[in-house]
Amino acid sequence: MSQSNNHLFRCIDTLKIGDLSDETKTIMFVEYARLVMLEEKASEWHPVSERPTKYGKYEVYRAKCGKQNYETWNGTGWAYNPNDITHWRFIKPPSEFLLK
Question: Where are the domains of the chain?
Fold first, then answer.
């Protein structure tokens, strides 16, 4: 579970417990919004000049054929046909909350 989801569930549980001031509620949900904004979003495309920091699978865009597919970053370069890749982004699985 992501840090922001964990914080949201704690906020909801706290609201169920009892009376809280409006200021306390505001602080809790401002912190939640801050955590959500800090998380990496799957929709942010990075140019190929910005290299991933970790080994793994990423979604890539291939300009010559106009397709998106998954490609492995091996730590030093793309595993297959790196000249065609123009952009990449992180693959984020659905949150655990959505899977239940």
Answer: 3-38, 46-99
